[in-house]
Write a structure and sequence with these properties.
446 residues, mainly alpha, Growth Hormone, Chain: A, 81% helix
Amino acid sequence: MILATCCLSLFLVTMDITIVNVALPAIGRDLGASMSGLQWAIDGYTVVLASFLVLGGSIADRFGRRRVFQVGLVTFTAGSLLCSCAPTIEALVAFRVVQAIGGTMLNPVAMSIIVNAFTDPKQRAQAIGVWAGVHGLAMAIGPLVGGALVESVGWRAIFWVNAPIAAVAIAATRRFVPESRAERPRRFDPIGQLLIVVGLATLTTALIEARGAGGHALPIAGAFAVAVAALAALVAYERRRAEPLVDPRFFRSLPFSVATLVAVIAFAMFNGGLFLASLYLQQTRGLPAFRAGLCLMPIAAALVVCSPVSGRLVGAGRTREALVASGVTLALGALLLLRVDSHTPLAQVVSALALFGVALGFANAPITNAAVSGMPRAQAGVAAALAATSRQIGATLGVAIAGSAADPFWWLVLVGGVTIVGLAYVATGALAQRSVVALRSLVERS
């Protein structure tokens, strides 16, 4: 019941990333939004998630995971209801930010609750496989539910569905989830938090607005420069702190570092592809919203089937096979879409999207398991938040790049798939295992 309750929150936050995609054409028509406005309707949500997930995990470790989890559910629901009333695209983006603030108190906290509930490594890996399956299911069901609601009620209804799910999750949390805290919660790091927000926000702004500015305008170059400077300052500052927001020592673990990079690549390719596919199916192919959602359903089937399989592979110590399968299928899907246009057979497009679902399904469990394995349980919230953050950074960058560089995007997906295959071998060699042991010893001594 603890796992089911935590999965409800994951379902909420994840579905809300993809349910909006299929409603983008309707939102654009109703609110008069530009392409960059539609990108911000997605990225306004994911930027905040990526920026504050680590902080959410730290707050939960200090003040109580169940308490923070419940506050997150209430905040997320309030933001959803506000989104349904948005009169302009600017207001919608602002209310999506409120949603995301609630979301930062859900996913990393839920993962920390799961890690503390499942102490046996094999059971924990299987639980993470279930978690990953729910994640995939939510991502894929979003477009179908969104398409049905857009056609039958209107795009505003896509935000109403969150309220009853959240109500069930709140009641289940009170009934089944025990309170827990870290024995040694870490201090807050406002400067590190500010640098993360500045870096992600300016980088996303530069990528989204580069298309309209031609990519060479001075403000765009300035935004890129600020993003790079913020990242450099973050690394330098965090290395000197006794209790950093982003602990650089975690990245001494090769599996953790590779999992972080794989998460960014996989989620960038998936979310960018989903953004383009939703617009392509409705605007280029002229499909109604519900039929467009049906075309995305094979993603759901692939994710539901492959995520638990990936969890079992990871639990059996076969992480390399799961990551290789992810990279290969991602590359194959990209190959099918390299020359996509209005005359491309619809079956070919749907097959490519299904392959993307397979790729994400096989990537999810290795990403999450690498984040929490080898870490002290007291750091579970922070480690899980870092894994979730890398996913959201990938989702943010993917949508930003896809909207600004739609034509070459499928080539980027192909390169991303090949890169994941190479990283699979880096993350599972003898050197990688030694780095995990060394990190565990280092963290436990401090």
